[in-house]
Amino acid sequence: MKIKDFVISIIFFLTAAVSMAQEKVVEKSGKKPDWIGQTMPEAIIVSNNNEDLNAAQARCMEEVKKEIANSVAVNISTSSSNSIEETMYNENYSSYSKYTSEIEQIAAELPYISGISITDAETYWEKIYIKKEKKYYYRYHLKYPFHYSFRQKLINEFKRIDSQKQAKLNELEKAYENISAVEDIKKHLIELQTLKDYFFDSTRQAETTELERKFKELYKQITVQEIENIPGKYTFALMLKNRTVSLASTPRLISDYATNMSISRDNSNNTFVVKYDYKGCTDEDENKVKIVINLGNGSITHTFRFDISETKPEISIPGFINIKISENSIESDTTKVEQAGYSCIIELSIMTQNKNLKIERIMLNVGETAESLISEDFKDNIIIPDNNLYSCRVNDIKEFGAKHNTLTDGYIEIRNNTDNSIKRIRIQRPYKVIR
C-alpha cells in the first residue's frame, strides 16, 4: 500500500471513530438487520436521517418510489430512445437524461407506484443522541421488495398508457377534419393540453403543439351562411370547411328597427331561424338586425338587412281615427224635443302612392262591447296620394257607450279603378271619441 493511501485510510478511520464517539444510540426498533448498507438484486434499500421519525419514514418511501420509477424509465428509455451514439456521446447525453427524467416523472404517477405501501417493507430505526450538540435525530432504514416480475408489470403498464396517449393523438388528428359542433373545438383543445403535459419526447410534443394551433385557427374559419331572407324571417347556418356545424349556445339579436325578435334552432339541418316584427319600419330606414354569436373563445357578429318595399301595403292609416259623436233628436206633437239615438262622423288619414284607388266601405268595432260602425257614405271617395283626411257619416246608432281611447279593429274596402278589383284591408288603429 502506498504511503498516501495509508494516510488517507488512517484519517478516515479516525474521523469515523470521533464521529461514533460523539453519537450514541439511545433507542432502536429491534435487532439491527444485516441488509443495512447492502445492495440486493430484487430489493430497494434506502436510509434517511431526520429529527422526526415519521418524516424519515416518508422520505424513505419517496426514495423507494423514485428508484422504482427510475428503473422503469431506464428500461423504457433504453428500448425506445436511439439518441445516444458513441461518436456524439457528450452532446447527446443531456438530451437522453432529460428524456429519461420525463419518463421517470410520468412513471411515478402510475397506479402501481403511487399505491406502494409501507406495510410491504422491512424497516429498522435508531434514535441517536449527539453529545456535542446535545440533540437527537432518527436514522431510518427501509428495505422494499422489487422483484423482476413487478418491474416488468410496471413497464408494461407504462407502455399501455403511452400507447393510449398515442392513439388519442391519432384520433384528434382525424377529428380535426370532421368537426360537426363548435363546442368540439374547445373539447379537443382541452384533450390536446392533456397530451402536451404527458408527452416526454420532442417529436410528439411538436406534433401536439402544431395540432393545437390548427384547432385554434378553426374558430377564425367559421362563417355565417344566409339560407333565407324574407320580411319577418331570416334563416342562417354556421359553416366550417363547407359543412354546417351546430352551436349549443343561442346567439343574441340586436336591432334598432325590428321588434319582437326571437331565435330558434332547427337541429335537423343545423340552422337558426330569426323571426321579428317590422311594423313601423319604412323604406328609408336601414332595417337591419345584428346577430352576435358566442363561439367559446370569443364571438363573431353578422348583420342582415330586410327589404320591406314589396310588403308595403297599398294604403296605410297613420295616427288616430277620430269618432265625432252627436245626438239625434226629433220634435213630438207637443213640440217637446226627444232624444232619438246617435250619429257620428269618422275621420281618418289615408296614405298611398296609387292614384287609382277609391274608398268603398269602412267598418270599425269600437268600445268594450265592440259596437260596429259601418259606412258607405264617402262623398269624395277617390283617394288622393300624400296623406289626406277623409270622413264618412254613420247614422242611426241606437247606443254608443265607447268613451275611452282604445284600439279599434275593423276593415276598409278599397276599389282599384284599373281592374275594378276590391281589396279588404284590416285596420287596427287607436281612436279618439269626441262628443
Main traits of this protein?
Immunoglobulin-like; 435 residues; alpha+beta; eight-stranded mixed beta sheet; 31% helix; 4 domains; 7 helices
Count of individual domains: 4
Order of helices and strands: HEEHHHEEHHHEEEEEEEEEEEEEEEE
Work out the helicity level. 25-40%
Query: What is the general shape?
Result: elongated
Distance between the termini: 138 Å
How many whole angstroms does the radius of gyration measure? Answer: 47 Å
Low-confidence stretches: 78-96
Describe this structure in words.
By secondary structure, the chain is an alpha+beta fold. The chain folds into 4 domains: 24-152; 156-220, no CATH class; 224-305, Immunoglobulin-like (Sandwich), CATH 2.60.40; 315-434, Immunoglobulin-like (Sandwich), CATH 2.60.40. It has 7 helices and 20 strands. It has helices spanning 3-22, 53-80, 89-107, 111-114, 148-175, 182-198, 202-221, and strands at 23-28, 43-50, 122-130, 135-145, 223-230, 233-240, 243-245, 252-254, 259-266, 271-277, 288-294, 299-305, 315-316, 321-331, 337-352, 357-366, 371-375, 388-397, 407-416, 421-434. The strands form 4 sheets. Strands 13, 14, 15, 16, 17, 18, 19 and 20 form an 8-stranded mixed sheet that branches. Strands 5, 6, 7, 9 and 10 form a 5-stranded antiparallel sheet that branches. A 4-stranded antiparallel sheet has the order 1-3-4-2. A hairpin with a 2-residue loop joins strand 6 (233-240) and strand 7. The longest helix has 28 residues, at 53-80. The protein is elongated, with a radius of gyration of 47 Å. The model is unreliable at 78-96 (pLDDT under 50).
